Amino acid sequence: MGKRSKSTAPGHAVNGRRGILAGAATGVIAAGVLFAVAELLSAFFGSVSSPLTSVGSTFIDFTPAWMKNFAIATFGTNDKTVLLLSMAVAAVVLSAVAGVVARKRFAAGASLVGAFAVVMAACIVTRSGATVLDLVPLLAGTVAGLWALRYLTRAGRTAATAPFDAGNSAPLPSRRAFLVRSALVAGAAVVVGVGANVLSTARNTARQVRDALRLPAPKVKARDLPSGVQAAVNGVTPFVTPNADFYRIDTALVVPELDPSQWQLRVHGMVDNEFTLSFDELLAADLVETYVTLTCVSNVVGGNLAGNAKWLGYPLREVLARAKPKAGADMVLSTSSDGFSASTPLPVLQDNRDALLAVGMNGEPLPLEHGFPVRMVVPGLYGFVSATKWVVDLEVTTFAEKAGYWTSRGWSSHGPIKTASRVEVPRALGRVPAGKVGIGGSAWAQQRGISKVEIQLDNGAWQPATLAAEASVDTWRQWSYLWEGATAGSHNVRVRAYDTDGTLQIEKQAPPEPDGSSGWHSITFTVV
Ligand SMILES: Nc1nc2c(c(=O)[nH]1)N[C@H]1C(S)=C(S)[C@@H](COP(=O)(O)O)O[C@H]1N2
Ligand SMILES: [Mo]
Q1: 420-527: which CATH number, 2.60.120.20, 3.30.420.40, 3.10.20.30, 2.60.40.650?
Q2: Is pTM, for the whole model, over 0.85?
Q3: Nearest protein CA to atom 20 of ligand 1, as residue
């Protein structure tokens, strides 16, 4: 440092602290150009052609189970935001390195960018449904990024080799030129990036078609909810979860945008009669409406990865009856447009439960995030083995032959829902006034139903809670308990449920992996 004024060879100045900063900025701006151009073009080629989307999705697919569990446990349904932020940090660091290297040896820096592009290309072409054409946006982006890298690296070198003006802190013309050029290129990247965003929103025909779609009336309407399904305690979860509040769990970094007029369901595999179903055919069939509580296997004890909705759809039993499964088949592998898959036991889809190819949720077409235009809903099974959103393919096969997405990542192949119960009021660590304290929550044992819920106050005797009305064995059931003489201080409440077979919910604490958490939920609150 401080030797800059003596340096004559450009190499020295190029490596100074300022040089590194300028190189890093050059690299980051060039990456911005690369991604902005690629995103703009990907609005025309489809979302797999977006390097950001495909790299992120590939990362999600290769995330080890423990990391996925950690992400969901720590960030819940914000896990994708955290992934995007981490990717942004990684992109900034890698592009800064490329920029610094390019400043010293342009060919080396450019090769680094090329190497990153090759990795991104590999992520793109290996996505489900991708073709070589999907490489066009990345290719164009890389050319633009390399141009920006060269343009700014040259400007930066000229600035660095200009004589250092020790007495004057104002930038010399060549330094100012570098700053101006950097700002111009960065500004252009931002404008193109924003344009890409606007364009892809405008071109989202799926959303427009969805908003204009009117679903047919069901052939079999859902039974009216009995009065009293909602427990008489303020603050208990709404019995029917509004679509906007319904938990969302999936591997899709970008929500698939399927146009119903292009949608087809291919039914094939070990069947006598393969066929494809169009969306119009599906809507013309005899649709059924039913309330089902969906539950995620990643839900921890007391967690909120569960929701209850009124679904409208076509019974999968009918789809399979038409396909005529061959003897020996024991599983249906359902696959989404973005390559997720779930293994559902064949008998479950053939018995008389309301397993649906769903098109409606709470009286509306499915929201895009919940699988528009068609998803599966299967009462009694966790979502990861049954609830495929954006479903496009049903293959009748065997568990011996095929495995679903999460099964090949350390989770179980079958996923019956375990009996669960939770305290929702009072809130954990909440404060409530002394006197009468309302306690309440939800319990579920889909397909079996809840027959009894008990609570335990401050490790005392287990006491029966009051059960709210039951809508069906496939929906959650609320419970409440009025604690009359609550005294000031810290208290603890535990809950446990029995299904209609009389089987008590498992007491042993277990984490979600591999087949769902277990344990009795317990919270602490303060009476003031
Ligand atoms: N295409 C697709 N479908 C999917 C998933 C997914 O990652 N991709 N996740 C499943 C899981 S693990 C669950 S719990 C449910 C969640 O459905 P929801 O997001 O509508 O609540 O969707 C299932 N269907
Ligand atoms: Mo899940």
Answers
A1: 2.60.40.650
A2: yes
A3: 370
